[in-house]
Amino acid sequence: MIEMCIDGARTVVERWKQFLLSPLGIYLYSLITGAVGIVILLMFFSMVLSPAALLILLPGIIGFNGATAGYGLLDKCSSFPRPAIALTSISLLLAIIGCAVIAVLQPWEPPIAALRSLLATLFALSGTFSGAWIAKKKTRLNK
Fold this sequence. Notes:
mainly alpha
């Protein structure tokens, strides 16, 4: 009986590992780590800094986590299919997540501020593509 449970657990773990090594799994892993990083940093800085300073730091936080997501995407799978589309979608989703977290943490701020959203998107795009560029350079140097 116990061996059946252990074999079932091994099967589940092997399937999960195979999924995480697939391009979709790598994409989701990069997106989730970037989003969790944004949430953690914004929650920490909301307790330490003033609300105005948090709004100033938002694009930098999103850009930094975008760089980690872009690096993670192309570092784990250097032959990712259509990397530009994947990097652009990750950066847009990270910008949306960052602005949504600000709307939750600071409900008195307007939920959709055009300049904040534009800056967050631009920083996310530049961070994601620079992280991907660093990952490409690393794989070229390692060859």
